[in-house]
Amino acid sequence: MPPRIRSSNCPPQQLLLNYLDAPLPSSLLPLHRSSAPSSSSPSCRSQQTSPQCQQQTSSFSTSQPREMTKPQREFRAFLKRMGKQFEKHEGNGPKYLCQVHQPKVDNVPFPSNKSFKSEPVLSSRARQTIWEAVMLKGMPLKAVSAQYQVDMRRVAAVVRLMEIEKRMERENAAMAIPYAQAVEKMLPRANLDSSEEEPFEPINDVHVHSFTMQQLFVPVSESREFTRKDAAKAFGDHILPPDHKMRIPELVDMEKAILNGIPQEKAEQEFLKQTRESERRFAESQKYVAAKKDAKKSKVDTERFEFRIENFNSEAVGKKGRARNAVGWRYGVPFNDRQRGLYKIPTSVG
Amino acid sequence: MRCERRILRYHSLKRGRVRQTWNKYNMYNLLRLRNSISSMGTFFQQKWAAKAATRAYHGEHIKEKQWERMFSRRLLSAVNMDPAYMAKYDGSEQAAGRGSGRDVKPGKWSKAQVARNTGNAEALTPYMQMTFAPQERRLDIAVYRALFASSARQARQFVVHGAVKVNGKKMQHPGYLLNPGDLFQVDPEKVMIATGRKKSSKSESLSTPKQPAAEEEAETAEEATEAAEQSVEELGPEQLQAQHLEGLKLLHQHAKKIIEANKEKLSGGHKKEIRELSQKIKEAMNRARKAGSDVQETGDDMQNLATLMSHLELTPTERKEFQKQQEQQASEAPAAETTSASPSAPTPLSPSPDYPQLKTRTPVPKTSTKFDKIESQILKRLLEEEKINPYDPSKPYATPWRPRPYMSAFAFIPRYLEVNPKICAAVYLRHPVARPGKSEIPTPFGTQISQLAFNWYLRRR
């Protein structure tokens, strides 16, 4: 097909004449327009300034690259100025967005939400200290928790993770050491030194039961001592008073002893003894449960395997034959493990 | 088939949605985030806007239906009970008098007199910030919160691809809800990919030495040589010491370069020589550590090392030629200048501007034994860093590993997790709770927006 010239108010002959008469200096011509007729040459424009003439120019790729939008420009400017300090982490400590506008507000990663703070994490040294206290010195978890003001569950988790770390070190397994170093530099840390005045975290926190969040009006005689226990009972029969919910009740005993005039060192020793005793009792009970469970199984030890055989009542399958702990396949009761709309993700891994 | 929500215009500047990622656009959007929703619209409109904004951040990859099922109107909170208070009071003091505790006379108020349960902030409990607490139980979001992935979507991918273990067993469901005490572990290599700088093909290729780090090194080396040229005549002893330090650094950089260059084509001989090099460096450092040693000696060591390294850069045949040439030089001492200037002489492969500088460093004063210790420590540290975080072109991320840009603005670990970043494992300690004055849910939104969103999900449908 021959090349077509678009219908235009600029006649082609005129264009050609213009082109021949007054060629534009090369510096003024757009680069990739050598073959195109110069519709936007001055004479054409002087003759007809209709929008159609403009349209013709836009059909060629002579237009300027699209400018950045305002948000894009602002974003670029932000990256060049304020954002520059976040590009590469320097120094030994956290650097959060809040420090841009309010340098006094510390460790708030979200400028609009002041109630969430980036709280310190245990440094690698602190983790080592906890591990040594538990595994080398043999201190009870409750005592370690009380000494360093670290939640008991966290103490247990630290020991668990450190054991894995040490095993991986022994096995020469791949670890993310440069990553760990970088992350530690970016986070606020607690070394659990004696120099730190603030406790690391509350160790005796009590869950707020939803029953206790309502307002109650309980008529009580003026002469009656209305204690925490009475208040708990007023909220509901099954509601425990906070004295029973304390994670380390031995600490309360220690404080009571100190109030009764027993010297602090003696009270602390008693506390250590009590916590050790409670830990031993817990371990024993766990052992007892495991032994009881084990006793139900009869074991047949062949050379290669140990078969553990347990008795089950195959009749106890519930009303619909689908009881949770029912064993085996039952005639006429199809499995629902592929049924739609049922939750099939495991609820626990153990 | 699982249908993923599309992520077109994920970090739009125009809409300004905040997401669970470490993206720089996201950082900007986070900074621009408005604290409240305008009260111009109806209550429904306000709730809708709040829901849209919060859901764009909280589990945007989770389908709305699924989240609605997960939502719970029971917001968990905890209060610290001080053992000293518990021991001293049984709570009856709060019900004394007319039922709300005895008044303290204005003049007699003191901290010791008033029974107080310490350990809690004097502020309201931000319950409304706990709206999206159930989502923090999800495995993929916990992986993101533990800083093992740069976005929640990436964390989800890690789970789906089988890189995450829960209690030692592979768990492929991103929607698995962690139970208190669950330990999850991510493949360290995946974490390094997710959190490390991207590898640009240009910087990693060996043929083009124009990577930024190398350029910087070259610049510093040039500066050092210029400074060294001045040194002999003008500079004082302290500046000379500084140069000495600089020289040691350069030497180390050079050693690094050699190791990098030879990594892929390591023959047995090369390996042996690298071992020898490290041995020599150790010896030099030990010598420097000795109290009696002077800098003159260490300077000689450095020269030796420099020559050793220049050998390392040559291929075996070239090295033979080089040795031959040196023998010639030794025999024709007066004509040494011409041979070294001849174009046929095999030169080291990489430009090494630090050699002449090293030679100029012979006139170093002898009163710098203390400084030497510092230098040797620096060198030692550098060598150790190199050992831990080596250059390795086979890795899918830029090596030596560095954190990705803008990571620090998003780096925080909430208290309900205990993380060990070295082994890329974490324990989900307990469900997140709100305490007086602080909430444990990392949410970028203010109380008003969270409250409106909570109200949206409260309604029965």
UniProtKB/TrEMBL annotation, chain A:
An example of a Gene Ontology BP annotation on this entry?
mitochondrial translation
Which Pfam family name is an example for this entry? Bot1p
Gene Ontology cellular-component terms for this entry are: mitochondrial small ribosomal subunit
Q: Where is the composition biased (Low complexity)?
A: 27-66
One of the entry's Gene Ontology molecular-function terms is: structural constituent of ribosome
Q: Which domain of life is it from?
A: Eukaryota
Q: Where is this region: Disordered?
A: 27-71
PANTHER family from the UniProt entry: 37S RIBOSOMAL PROTEIN S35, MITOCHONDRIAL, SMALL RIBOSOMAL SUBUNIT PROTEIN MS45
- Tell me what this protein is called: Eukaryotic mitochondrial regulator protein-domain-containing protein
Species whose genome carries this gene: Triangularia setosa
TrEMBL record, chain B:
> What are the subcellular locations of this protein?
Mitochondrion
UniProt region (Disordered), positions on chain:
195-235, 318-367
Where is the major localization of this protein?
mitochondrion
The UniProt keywords, alphabetically, are:
Coiled coil, Mitochondrion, Ribonucleoprotein, Ribosomal protein, RNA-binding, rRNA-binding
Q: Where is the composition biased (Acidic residues)?
A: 214-235
Q: Which PROSITE patterns match?
A: S4
Recorded GO cellular component terms are: mitochondrial small ribosomal subunit
GO terms, molecular function: rRNA binding; structural constituent of ribosome
UniProt biased composition (Low complexity): 326-344
UniProt feature coiled coil, ranges: 267-294
Q: Where is the composition biased (Pro residues)?
A: 345-354
The UniProt record lists the RNA-binding S4 domain at 137-197
As for what it does, the entry says: Component of the mitochondrial ribosome (mitoribosome), a dedicated translation machinery responsible for the synthesis of mitochondrial genome-encoded proteins, including at least some of the essential transmembrane subunits of the mitochondrial respiratory chain. The mitoribosomes are attached to the mitochondrial inner membrane and translation products are cotranslationally integrated into the membrane.
- This chain belongs to the protein called Small ribosomal subunit protein uS4m
Recorded source organism is Triangularia setosa
